[in-house]
Amino acid sequence: MTDRRNSAEPTVRRMPWPDSASRPLVSPLQPSVVYVAAGPDALDAQYEGRAPGYAYAREGHPNADTLAAMIDALEGTSGGIVTGSGMAAVGVAMLALLRAGDHVVGGDQLYGRSMRMLADDLPRLGIATALADPTDAAAVAAALRPATRMILIEVVSNPTLRVADLAGIAALARDRGILLAVDNTFTTPRGLRPLDHGADLVIHSVTKLLAGHSDATLGYIAGRDPAVAARLRTAAATWGLTPAPFDCWLAERGLLSFPLRHERASANAARLADHLARLPGVVRVVYPGRADHPDHARARGLLGSGGSMLAFEVAGGRAAASRLVRAAPALAFAPTLGDIATTLSHPVSSSHREVPKAARAAAGITEGFFRVSVGVEEIGALRDAFTAAVAAAAGQGDS
Ligand SMILES: *Cc1c(COP(=O)(O)O)cnc(C)c1O
User: Fold this and answer.
1) Rounded Cα gap, residues 61 and 177, in angstroms
2) Tens of pLDDT along 214-233?
3) Which atom of ligand 1 has the smallest separation from the CA of 88?
4) pTM above 0.90?
5) Which one in 23, 197, 241, 386 has a CA-CA gap of 20 to 30 Å to 174?
6) Is any atom of ligand 1 closer than 6 Å to the C-beta of 247?
């Protein structure tokens, strides 16, 4: 057998990217895992911060940095990083800033996975944890220990939409030299900028309202202190919590319309909350923008609007809840939030299924309880969809 390959064989090789005196308006998607450097001196200059550039995508890439800079601007900070998910952002805070022997206090209604991290994972690493009600700064103070190094709260709780005493907790953290981390996913920087209120760290699940289209899983974290920010960046690269370029590129596109989406969704939520409260069969409406909300005064002082999340309860238990979902095909029954369209979630069968029934009942999370992430639809269509769904829950119009 002779080797039939010769130099005339067609070959494929990489070609240089075309030069252009103009630049694209839209950020290019840059999926390259690795970057080609001019030589060892050029790499030294990059790693020593004397020249800009990238080396390896896990350590940083332009799509992540562009998106991070956009969120930094919204949060009024700089040097934030994008992570592979919201939970990666929560995780990197812990991995970068805590050590065995430290103690963490978390809000008692944190996002479910954050709760699980505090309950199971941190203790396994020698980090003790406790939960406290963040609507009551005295309760948080009572949970502190000499070893407490971090407090993690969400300003608006899920799904009961209680509003934390951010000023009280920030004062405590400052007095005791404890890092205050605020997961700002629910409130968003249009509602509140935690770093302006004394937080040391701000965290997002970018997956939700910021990206806004349920097609990218990402997180974000920024630290007020540049030394803290540098530790976050290093830990994210070391533990591999950094994001994929395509997700960042999608989220950048989504984020451009975030202020408009948020304004429209919040206006819709306020009107829908009032509409629901007038419907027969609705036992309760929970919306921080309504005067009957337990934290209404605090919400008005802290958040610009009532936000785009609301909750309500129908009578009739699981059967009524199931009828409601069946009668509302236009309202996606999906356990997420922050999509451009309205989504309905039923905490008892999803986010809060592991929470003991008595604890759920104490928080008002019953079989008839729904959380609504309000989208940007026409308000008339939304009202009609909920009117029909609530009527079906009550056993009218749907057999
Ligand atoms: C969804 C969510 C997270 C986790 O974000 P992922 O992107 O799903 O990892 C954390 N905190 C809050 C408040 C969330 O809603």
Assistant:
1) 34
2) 999 999 999 999 999 999 99
3) 9
4) yes
5) 241
6) no
